[in-house]
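Much of what follows relies on a compact textual record of a protein's fold. A complete example follows; check for yourself that the lines match position by position.
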Amino acid sequence: MDLCRVCLGPEPCKDILSDPQKPKTDSKSFAEIFMFCFDIKVDEDSKISTKICIKCYNKVKSYYSFKCQAVESDAYLKLLQEGNSIKNEVFLRDDNDIKSEQSSLTNDMQELDVTVKDEPKDDDLYKNEDDSRGYDTDDVLLSVIKNIKYEFNQDGGKEEQAVKKKKKRKGFTEANSNAVRQICEECGKAVKDLKAHSYLHMPESCRKRFKCKTCDKVFSSHSSRSKHNKIKHLGLKKQCELCNKTVTNLQQHILVVHNRSSLPFCCVSCGRRFISKSTLDLHMTTHTKDRPYPCTECDKKFSTNQRMLLHRRQVHDKEKSHLCQLCSKSFFKKYHLQVHLRSHSKEKPYSCPECGKCFSTTTTLNSHREIHKEEKAFNCTLCDMSFKKRNYLNAHMISHTKEKRHPCQYCGVKFGRSDHRKRHEYTAHEKNFIST
């Protein structure tokens, strides 16, 4: 009977009697944990299944931590209650009790005064002793007692708060240390929340999705849907005064775009700075030749899994979710759609500071600015010529290779450069057709 002992699901992969991931801070085996949580004893010679699935395994571990926390909290509260009861009996008396004790003490003193009034020396001694205390009336003495009791309660309260804070910090640290030691068996990563991480290994059809209430987009969590709703539908964006760009996080935008030199993490290879260590680690993959993530559809390899998935969506899946409302042309990225819309509006927002020529994208602007440099950094390996731009060098190399890979769409004549083919198509075929 190969079923999960808890949910009766098929193909369980965890054995209750084996304990490959015993935590260092806990000496109990998983079978003992199972007995502690559910009062169910699993024997080695049992004919019933002794295995559970990974989902139930994670739930048992989570419930075990929760129950241990409840037991520890209960023991701590009982200990605290015993200490408070002793303290209340000694110090936290009612004010009426204090007044009654004070009145009885005063009566005793008066009786003593009547008894020894014939002895002046003792009476003077008593008066001097009473005056040395400095308490003129019972109310003054009572106020002094109240102050003493208040100071004691205040100090005791601070000690209790310190104990509670220490207890809370200790529990928080233990929870974090246990979370860091959790190892995912699917990918081998050390994660803080194994339950949330195991959700990523489930098939997409089994994952819970959250649909936007305004549009048709779906998300994997409530937080991502809420963020989408604030940005896309509520328009909660701020405008940067330096570049007039509307962004969702103005402080991060100013830091990353306009004040990059103050970022804390620096790349030792190229000197670029980054806002977090994760972005720096992602950037460091560009300086290595390791490509551990191959595409299953073609022979290309990538440095990160995200880039490989992006390649599959764009090249093989032909995903184009951004549609132009003017010409019905679709694009993979929203940025590509924004650049395409400038072809309809003839907008060119980026100008060259040297010559004033305007361009529609920063990529074309940066490529254009290379012609203003005096240095010719791109040298031909077959002759002595050098060029300011790489595409100029690529066009020149055709003169050495004699490669012609740009055929005319009308007559089939091939050309080495695409601009030569375009010129031929206009002069030989399109010009006469337009004139007629």
